[in-house]
Amino acid sequence: FFFFFKQKTAYEMLRSLVGSEMCIRDRLLLVSFFCASLVTIQSNPLKQLYTLEEPDQVERAMFTPDDKHIITTNVLNVISVWNVSTKTLVGTFNNQRSIADLAISPDGKYIVTGGRDNTLRIWSLVDMKLVHQFIDAHRNGALSVAFIPDSNIIVSGGGAFDGSIRFWDIQKKELIGSIKEAHLLNVRVLAISKDGKYLASGSDDNTIKLWNLETRELIHHFKDTHDCLPERLIFTSDSKYLISGGYQGEVQFWDVDDRERAFSLEDPNYFTMRSLILSPDNKFLITFRSKASVTIWNLQNLEVVFSQKKLLDSELLGAGISSDGKYLITGSSDNLARVWSLQLDGVSLSKENKFKVEAMEDELDKLQEMGLVI
Fold first, then answer.
1. Closest CA to 35 of 81, 77, 4
2. In angstroms, rounded to a whole number, what is the distance separating the alpha carbons of residues 240 and 293?
């Protein structure tokens, strides 16, 4: 279950407790804050297993859906495919121009890249070759890309003064639809729910929009989503929540059905967001930020179970998780992709802290009877 923050962070709640009398209009706020104070940081759940060396900085690193291969990209715009079992390089693709975004098809057969040269490129992981290019797919860059599950369709987002979202059939090799002027500025990030019902888009105009993927109609417009622009978006596997990571600071949870902010988490590491990762079982959320900082939350009680400001001596640029949730892959400025084991089994609120929560609720009942809690 979740302790809902009702659109307030623990820091905001602390600031609101002024004087001896507490004006708390929702007891859940105080319980949430109290739980946040019971954080028990465990030992480092990340153990480095091995590294893969690139000729230059590794901007992206991810597993294929079957976990048999690792995909990395470097600042030279080269895409590398690695065999996980042998830890060897299978082959490379030369993207030629700067890569703005990359996505792997759910069946693991294709890679799509969005380029700052306005081009979408489709690569076959079966034949290890370029199969098609959509030239002039957008103006001012094809900045974001995503695959629709169980289909041959990719979605792309355009740059400033374009702001469109477009749909492409990679088998027919043609444009099949578009949402014109989806945003005022760059469509920086896209996310698609696993059930294929929803599309979410985040923009430099500091908004997130939720779309019906079948009709391509706008469902809701979330405004003023972050202090800075939304950098990362991901749906929970049941499609109940959309999670957004800001350029700096907080992580927001948006209720898809109620179409409102459910709660937020204040990241103790206040740096540029690099990756936002949800464990396959939806129990843990991991943020990677610049300066190689990492934070891991247990979403069953909103505990921070691990936080480190400097995981590496180099800058961390991208990260991904295996489909079984047991491994992480990171890319960094020292030209290395690192594979880590991730051990989060048994991480939960301790029995001692559970008793404290129950005691806190009892005290709240007493304070409410005395009229000190509204």
1. 4
2. 28
348 token code pair: 């939960």
Q: Is the separation of the CB atoms in 284 and 294 below 8 Å? A: no
Cα separation, 231 vs 110, whole angstroms? 24
Contact call for residues 275 and 255 (beta carbons, < 8 A):
no
> What sign has the CA pseudo-torsion 184, 186, 189, 190?
positive
> Three-state DSSP class for 10?
helix
Q: What angle do CA 157, 127, 329 make, to 5 degrees?
A: 60
> Contact, 28 vs 57, CB < 8 A?
no
CB 242 within 8 A of CB 261: no
Position 372 confidence tier, pLDDT thresholds 50, 70, 90: low
pTM for the whole structure: 0.81
Distance CA 202, CA 219 (A): 14
pLDDT tens-place string over residues 312-355: 999 999 999 999 999 999 999 999 999 999 998 755 444 344 44
Token pair in block for residue 292 = 């190689």
Helix (H) or strand (E) holding 351: helix 351-369
H helix or E strand, kind and range, residue 358: helix 351-369
Sheet holding 284-289, edge to edge: 273-278, 284-289, 293-298, 303-308
Question: Which one, of 334, 340, 320, lies nearest residue 60 by Cα?
Answer: 320
* Sign of the C-alpha dihedral computed for residues 59, 314, 299 and 341 taken in this order: positive
DSSP element (H, E) containing 212: strand 208-212
